[in-house]
Predict the 3D structure of the following.
Amino acid sequence: MALITKKKILYRINHQLRRYLKKYNREYTMNISYADLLRYDNAIILYDKNGVDTLWESVFYSPGDQEGVYESLKQIYADLKTDGNKEVIKHLVIDRVDFCTYGNTHPFRIRIVNRVNDNFDYFYIKIADASRVYGLELEHILSPNRINYVTHENTLVEEHIAGVPGDIFLQQSLETDLEAPIRLAKEFVKFNERCLVQVLGDMHSANYVVITTPDFEEIYYRIRPIDFDQQCYEGKKSVYMPQYFKQNNSLIELGMKLMTPESVWQYQIEERSMIASRLKSENQRVYDLMDVMSKDEIAPLENVDQLKSELAKHYQDDRFLACQTMGEIVWHSLELVMKH
């Protein structure tokens, strides 16, 4: 069983990572910061449609501050979605600003609405943690998903990833309620493999969403992580394998019923082949990222020592033992994918 017992330390973005972010257009000047949003006047508890406390609060700013805050938030949305094009925000209004009262980063969630068609979207403003930035960047490069995020000084802005939260999705009977349960089981195997390769941890059911896509007479599923706090921080290998979280047991049981060990191995190889292909197509970007990450201190030394030992045993590869940082561990993990 995977278990995280201590709160993660936040790590600042260093000069080398900042330079990388600027090179790949992830860094934008913003008129408002995470710290500025903390200066709200009032807050009320936000309940879901069933009257259950969501652990989010809707916050309110003084009349003198609200207009400036909302205009700055709309500009941030333009930076996130359209490379700063202000034309897109003419018909947008900030409908609500929510503050999360739990978790590591205590994010703000912004609900933004188009007045023309009433369509809405969300984005998040968080403290800029280097671990999270590395996780977002690796997910963007190595997975089939693309991630929009921007940074400025100590502020990180992330797009909303749409989908059904995993803990809610798994409340149904996976065998009887799904049209294609075998496809979900296959996707979970691939998701598990991606997390291990990029050393992304803490993928219990509340930290990912499930996306269902109809295609002619078939149904396809994709599992996407939505929380990147635990990018290569913990020392236990099991933290980086979603199969070891008890919250995912129904997915594990589904796979055991519907798949053979041979088919699981086949899907693992397929996913590693896809990751290798993405590594080749993004060769320079990956090298630039790993060059920075391998020199960055983003985890306690005892965690580095534990993880490199466990991965050396898992892969039967003693070269992990020479790694001095979490970034070097990730780099060697990616090199293994390319080699095999």
